[in-house]
Amino acid sequence: MSVPGSPAVSSALHECSVREAAARVRRRQVSSVELTRAALARIEAVEPRVGAFLARCEAEALAAAEAIDRRVAAGDDPGPLGGVPVGVKDNICTAGVRTTAASRILESFVPAYDATVTAKLRHAGAVIVGKLNCDEFAMGSSTENSALGRTRNPWDPERVPGGSSGGSGAAVAARAVHAALGTDTGGSVRLPAAFCGVVGLKPTYGRVSRYGVIAYASSLDQVGPVTRDVADAAVVLEAIAGHDPADSTASPRPVPAYQDGLDAGVRGMRLGLPREYFVEGMQPEVEQAVRAAVRELERLGAVIEEVSLPHTEYAIATYYLIATAEASSNLARYDGVRYGLRVPGQSLGEMYERSRAAGFGAEVKRRIMLGTYALSAGYYDAYYLKAQQVRTLVRRDFERALERCDALLTPVAPTTAFRIGEKVDDPLTMYLSDIMTISVNLAGLPALVVPCGADGAGLPIGLQVIGRHFDEATMLRIGYAHELASDWHRRSPIP
Amino acid sequence: MAALARLRLEPDEEERLRSDLSAILEAFERLQGLDTAGVEPTAHVEDFGALLRADEITNPPAGEALVANAPARDGRRFRVPKIIE
Q1: pLDDT tens-digit profile of B8-37?
Q2: pLDDT band for position B62 (50/70/90)?
Q3: How far is CA A440 from the centre of its chain?
Q4: What is the pLDDT of chain A when averaged over all its residues?
Q5: Is A466 helix (H, G, I), strand (E, B) or coil?
Q6: Where are the domains of chain A?
């Protein structure tokens, strides 16, 4: 049985969750080609307002969808994401499809291979319809640092979608794709999820392979799903997680079936509220919405207690020294020799310097310079080594709190989405946007963001659930319990 | 520092960076007030030890694909400015 492709039905198709879309394909109620055409039509309709995509791959997507439909017709299992249109952040390699990291230096780069997460998505049956905008090399909190496009918040075009995975957050919120992949080095999946009112998951460091992900800060980077609800996040995480012979930092621990036990509830769980995350200067509506979500979880049987993470105030400095040090080293590969932009010079050195000067944007240069400084002789101990030691203290804070608690509950950011241009000229103020997300990366912990409210202007507010190492399952259970008791995840910015 | 980072900066860019970086480093001075004597540095959060695998070629040869992105090439080789005078 096939659903006719009338406009009424197509408009319903882009509203489906990943699970529902995959179930319909599996039951042959809709073909993957129909789903893909519906997604492409939706993208066409919302892109002028949102600008989430750097590239759309219509021909490749339709070919992939046809292949899925043939498998379904032959009676094969098309996989957990079988036939479902998704988007991928543009710092994740897609074989044969331009991958730029939103940088001029990679503007014409076409990878020869898929990132492991890309290959895993395809293996799970997903249909990749396009590449999503982000801050250049994932360095930023608003997606304004993209050299190749402007992404707007689907809830208010004058506001940022958050960053760095702003295209992923905006595309999922605008119902342009059923799910997307982002990367999170200091909050880059979670901040856009909160600002755009969708679900974002940053896995434990090592849960997901980084092979083929354009490196920013290798000890902090993780790939994570952006979805419309918590169960979809479980489905996508399960599809992309696991050990990878191509990445020695990808953990060999087995990947649990994250959907199992999702509905087990929170009764008896001990959930901590870090007092340092409820600070003065927060937008009052953010605090109110987060506290309301906490009360709801308490009503559902969780035990709430206050905890302390005393080194929180050092996290921004620690993060920006470590991340930029790693970035200055990772970005040394862009030299105009083997790939990427080249600006000719008289000597090899001049060619390097000119190519990098022309290819990198202001924020990337700022971070390379800061990192070079932190690693340079004479400053190494005072900055880089010191930051690594403080990282240990930040990590111990969490270990202590999570000995007592099953998870921690916090806001995602002190405010809702800010205005385009508001912080872009003041890097330090922009860095402070990450104050509630970066410690999680320093500690290597998993965290989940779920929508939990809106401010007076209707802008979304997120709740962050921070879990124990490799305990994404508990975190997802908490998010799911909250979601069952609320309908914030059903709100959609664009009809 | 710009030379170390292999970046050729314009004078106005250099001025801007200088003021940004000094403001950032000043704000980061707060770390110096924290006593970290005897604290082990964390380079990586999870130490799985050395994960070894057999040294086998698993990827197919991709000669042309690998040089296809080269900004300047000579057959299957990358072309660069003269290095030795």
Answers
A1: 999 999 999 999 999 999 999 999 999 999
A2: confident
A3: 14
A4: 96
A5: strand
A6: 1-495
3-state secondary structure of B14: helix
pTM above 0.90, yes or no: yes
Concerning whether A89 is annotated as a catalytic residue, the answer is: yes
CATH domain A1-495 topology: Amidase signature (AS) enzymes (3.90.1300)
**Residue B19 vs residues A135, A319, A434, B1: alpha-carbon distances, Å:** 22, 20, 22, 14
Model confidence pLDDT, tens digit, residues A68-125: 999 999 999 999 999 999 999 999 999 999 999 999 999 999 999 999 999 999 999 9
Query: Does the pLDDT of residue A31 top 60, yes or no?
Result: yes
Cβ–Cβ below 8 Å for B81 and A348: yes
Give yes or no: A6 in active site.
no
Residue A118 tokens, joined: 């890309």
Minimum CA–CA partner of A218 in chain B: B44
Is residue B11 less than 8 Å (CB to CB) from chain A?
no
Kindly name the residue from A10, A31, A32, A89 that is annotated as catalytic.
A89
Helix (H, G, I), strand (E, B) or coil at A454: strand
Write out the H or E segment, with its range, that includes residue A434.
none
**B53-57: long-range pairs with CB below 8 Å, 24+:** B53/A245
Nearest to B42 among A311, A321, A395 (CB): A395
* A237 within 8 A of A472, measured Cβ to Cβ: yes
pLDDT of residue A29: 96
The average pLDDT across A42-62 equals 98
Residue A258's closest CA among A228, A290, A225? A225
Query: How far is it, in rounded angstroms, from Cα A474 to Cα A449?
Result: 13
* Phi-psi sector, A265: left (phi>0), alpha (psi -120 to 50), beta: left
H-type alpha helices, A83-128: 116-123
What value of ipTM does the predicted structure carry? 0.93
- Whole-angstrom distance, CA of residue A368 vs CA of residue A384: 14
Look at A369 and B21 and tell me if their CB atoms are within 8 Å: yes
